Amino acid sequence: MPALKGHGFEIVRYREERGRFTSLRQLDEVPGLAGKTDGVDEAVTVAGPTE
C-alpha cells in the first residue's frame, strides 16, 4: 500500500497508545498520515478482534 509505506512505526505507536483501529478514518490521526489516506478504503479493512 503506497500511501502507508514508511509509516509502520507511527502506525504501531498509535495502536500501542490508543488500541485497535475501529475505523479507517483513524489513520488520518496517525502522525504523518493526515491527508495521505484517500483511497485506502479500497485496499484496507478494519476488522473486529479475533478469537
Provide the fold topology:
Layout: H1 8-18
Which terms would index this structure?
51 residues; mainly alpha; 1 helix; 22% helix
Task: Give a concise summary.
The protein has 51 residues and is mainly α. 22% of the residues lie in helices and 0% in strands.
Percent of residues in helices: 10-25%
* Element pattern in H and E: H
**Roughly what fraction of the amino acids lie in strands?**
under 5%
Content-based structural category = mainly alpha
Span of the ends, CA to CA: 26 Å
> What is the 3D form?
globular
Instruction: Characterize the main sheet.
Output: none
Assembly type of the chains comes to single chain
Structure summary, number of beta strands: 0
Please report the number of helical segments: 1
Radius of gyration: 11 Å
Q: What are the segments in which pLDDT stays under 50 over at least 5 consecutive residues?
A: none
Provide the residue-averaged pLDDT: 86
Question: Any overview of this molecule?
Answer:
There is one protein chain. The chain is mainly α. Helices cover 22% and strands 0% of the residues. The protein has one helix at 8-18. The longest helix has 11 residues, at 8-18. The radius of gyration is 11 Å and the shape is globular.
